[in-house]
Description:
heterodimer; A: alpha/beta; Rossmann fold; 2 domains; 7-stranded mixed beta sheet; 3-stranded parallel beta sheet; B: mainly alpha; ABC transporter involved in vitamin B12 uptake, BtuC; two-stranded antiparallel ribbon; 11 helices; 3% strand; Amino acid/amide ABC transporter membrane protein 1 (HAAT family) (chain B); transmembrane helix (chain B)
Amino acid sequence: MRMKAFLAGAAGAAFLAGAAxxxxxRIGASLPITGGLSVSGEKHKRGYELCNKLINxxxxxxxxQVELIVSDNxxxxxxxxxxxxxxxxxxxxxxxxxxxxxxxxxxxGNVLSKYNMVHPIPSGGALRIYTQGHKNxxxxxxxxxxxxxxxxxAVIKEQIAxxxxxxxxxxxxxxxxxxxxxxAGLLGQKVIDPANDKEVADLSPGYLADAGIxxxxxxxxxxxxxxxWLNLANSIKRSxxxxxxxxxxxxxxAVQLTRALxxxxxxxxxxxxxxxxxxxxIDGVGKESAEGVLIHTTWHKDVNFEGTLAxxxxxxxxxxxxxxxxxxxxxxxxxxxxxxVCQGIEQAIIGAGSTDNAKxxxxxxxxxxxxxxRTVLGxxxxxxxxxxxxxxxIMTQWQGGEMKFVYPTGEFEGVVQLAYPKAGF
Amino acid sequence: MAQFIQVLILGLALGGVIxxxxxxLSLVFGVMRIxxxxxxxxxxxxxxxxxxxFKLWGIDPIVMLPIAALILAGIGVLLYRLMFEQEAKSxxxxxxxxxLTFALAMMVEGLLGAFFTNTQRVTSPDYxxxxxxxxxxxxxxxxxxxxxxxxxxxxGLALFLKYSRMGYAIRATTQNRDAAELLGVNVNLVSVVAFAIGIGLAGAAGALVSFVFxxxxxKQWEWIAMxxxxxxxxxxxxxxxxxxxxxxxxxIAAFVGxxxxxxxxxxxxxxxxxxxxxIRPEGLFGEKPExx
Lengths: 425, 292
């Protein structure tokens, strides 16, 4: 009798749980909340959670509340893969949000492709991710990381007189998916697919050579565990380079490198870092050292990007206000990008009229420049491999303790003149 | 030549800090056979103490060092009582402590993340990014001060171990726990004190690390491998060995980083660990384990 009652209860609970699932739309996201990528992972979580909360406050999606399931992958690719498998096979999610970093996105792409899921990618810019033949990849930044150098060089060409421009450069970078990808474009290297050793792209001669800037030093440091920043900074200083390019995999590395350059008394004319738009950067290095440092970004709080949420306008300024209200601090791009991913998936579900991933993918693939996805990062439509069309990086520069944007000129209000040359650290 | 001297200085400066980071780990293993994988997470806890004291009240991290050490030593006493005391006589104690301290490391990381978020931090007194310049050579003030303070602390620890009654007891317990107990040493008290000192050293190292490296809770996983390399090379339990290994590996890594490539400098530590385990598992200054 007891067994019967137990079984009946279990069946009832399962039925109710199933009914509860049906009442909600479940979305899974595996993020590096702990481990080496935790600084950005935590911020991505905030971006996803805020967007989810706002959608639910505005009545949900297709009349249902949205349930966000976030799992900590500990910055470990194998764990990230397992978690997406679990989202799909155990949690029965309706959709997923992508994870942080190229290192985690690359292997996760195979899993999501296997199950024909729409894979919106917040942070995974390495070109190799998009050449695996996966369908329904949608990158929510500007372009593959290999092409970032184009915008860096454009700033130099547009904002510095030719006779004043830096003539030599030291390129130092993390031995990391993302940093290696930017370096490949700047240095003119070939991009090789690690799965089959096939050439994905030949980027020679490279953006720096194109711009007539001589590479006097190239060095990379290991992905994890590197502590010898002063030694590296000393080598950079001794190279005599007029420009320093530091392709760091995280804001933490950007802080370490900048502090080391200050300590050794380096005095380049221009410094470009791949990370450093985050608030931690200015906190870590101070206003004086940050002054004049150039950083590429996808987002800036003052750019008037026009997005939507729940079918109504929800612009960048709305996002900044909502974020400050929710968390009591200013957002940076590591929260804005996942917010945009969430907006994109929300629009795809509404556009498809269901959470059928095939239909969502069709809808996203059908976006055009005139009929795009609208987010706090601006408009998105994608090419056939999932890279955004017709977008450029926002090149920002720390000036007087604030991030100003110096490029692209003529596209947004508020673009300021590049501060050049940099006056020490 | 200037370049050679410069690299040597940078290696030595880094070695001082790493020596202090590793000495607590070595002491705790030497006395209690605890392989404390949570040591770096406790260093980070000490770094947070120094960071917030500087951020909120402008207290210099070197001034804050004794307080960070005391706070962490207190935590050490609690941890020992709660986690290790009961199992101290177990035949598989060392193996068990690997698992216990691994769990502790994850818990500490979680707690630090919950309290302080995963945002990276670094303490920024003026000297942290300043240097003495002598012609073409520079000596980074932050690492120099941290290295000097580290050596003073390690020197004080060596004097304490050599000349104080508790020091005698700790050394006796390190050499042979059972014999020390038979001779009337209160090995349980000695273990508590040694563990507290070891964790206190983590707190002290944390205060110095807070302005030498940036840190966040998960940073511990990067440091544990480096510290284990230093401690194993020096000989588990040997403070002198830890100091020699820290300076040696830091200097070698600095030269490798300069003339071979930065990618390989970190590898120096792991290569040393691999080689020493193959040819001299007891390390440079460690004792050969007795055969069963």
